[in-house]
């Protein structure tokens, strides 16, 4: 039994493809397959490269578009990688345009960029390819990976549609929102309304919200009773805005605390400003949600 397990281990081990120097990894064009998967809060476009690993474009709310690589084997000798935009192999003038370079630390590599990666995926949609070239510490090329845009368009259209419909904020952004106020301010500012609009967009996308807690606080300047009333007016103003834009009143729990529960000392301007706040906490049922805290 021991010899059988040992032989099975060796068989599996040697079946795993090794990353060889001087090799170009590229899936045969007739086998290239791009796939899309996503939800209301996550978009992914990916393809597998033979003997190398998986290449994917990922996007989440309030994060830059990311290019991620997961290799089948550790990149032991590679020191850095350069990402290129490449003309298709049948193009007479094969050219490479550098997009980005990155130091390598592990076999899971992530590029995050609002501009470079967005331009890369847009250009692939227009017929270009992507190339990844790996180098050692002496700037010697080890191997390269070419990713074609064959069979890309349908999945790319799904991915782009998902991108357009993502809320601007994810749960990590909305679960603890803080609106800070000027001294004596009662009504929402335009910036605060923009924050609430983004929250409302999220709430429209997530039907697993159980409760929204609105807690209002003031600094300790002035009369305690007046501060309690001011905190109530601020909390009511936030709640009214949410309700006016379609948030169910039944989800809201409103509490006014006046100058109780400061989170900073009230003996400095900065401390006073921090304490003048309305906090909004969003509670949800994770057992029914398709969003993950990544």
TrEMBL record:
It comes from the Bacteria. Residues 1-20 form the signal peptide. One of its GO terms (cellular component) is cell outer membrane. Keywords: Cell outer membrane, Membrane, Signal. It is found in: Cell outer membrane. Its main location: membrane. It holds the Pfam family MotY_N. InterPro entries: Bact_OuterMem_StrucFunc, MotY_N, OMP_bac, OmpA-like, OmpA-like_sf. The keyword Oxidoreductase does not apply. Residues 169-286 form the OmpA-like domain. PANTHER family: LIPOPROTEIN YIAD-RELATED (PTHR30329:SF21), STATOR ELEMENT OF FLAGELLAR MOTOR COMPLEX (PTHR30329). This is OmpA-like domain-containing protein. It comes from Paraphotobacterium marinum.
């Amino acid at each position: 039994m021991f010899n059988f397990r040992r032989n099975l281990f060796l068989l599996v081990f040697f079946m795993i493809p090794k990353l060889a120097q001087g090799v170009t990894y590229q899936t045969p064009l007739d086998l290239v397959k791009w796939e899309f998967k996503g939800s209301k809060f996550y978009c992914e476009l990916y393809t597998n490269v033979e003997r190398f690993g998986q290449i994917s474009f990922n996007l989440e709310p309030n994060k830059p578009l990311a290019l991620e690589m997961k290799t089948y084997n550790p990149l032991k000798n590679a020191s850095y990688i350069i990402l290129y935009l490449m003309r298709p192999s049948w193009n007479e003038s094969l050219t490479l345009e550098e997009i980005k370079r990155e130091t390598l630390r592990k076999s899971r590599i992530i590029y995050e960029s609002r501009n470079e990666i967005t331009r890369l995926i847009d250009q692939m949609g227009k017929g270009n390819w992507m190339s990844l070239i790996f180098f050692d510490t002496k700037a010697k090329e080890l191997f390269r990976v070419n990713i074609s845009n064959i069979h890309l368009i349908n999945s790319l259209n799904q991915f782009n549609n998902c991108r357009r419909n993502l809320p601007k904020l994810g749960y990590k952004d909305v679960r603890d929102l803080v609106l800070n106020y000027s001294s004596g301010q009662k009504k929402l500012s335009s910036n605060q309304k923009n924050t609430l609009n983004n929250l409302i967009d999220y709430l429209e996308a997530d039907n697993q919200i159980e409760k929204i807690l609105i807690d209002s606080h003031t600094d300790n300047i002035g009369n305690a009773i007046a501060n309690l009333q001011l905190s109530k007016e601020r909390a009511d103003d936030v709640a009214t805005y949410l309700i006016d834009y379609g948030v169910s009143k039944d989800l809201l729990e409103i509490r006014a605390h006046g100058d109780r529960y400061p989170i900073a000392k009230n003996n400095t301007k900065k401390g006073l400003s921090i304490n003048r706040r309305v906090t909004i906490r969003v509670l949800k049922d994770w057992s029914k949600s398709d969003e993950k805290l990544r």
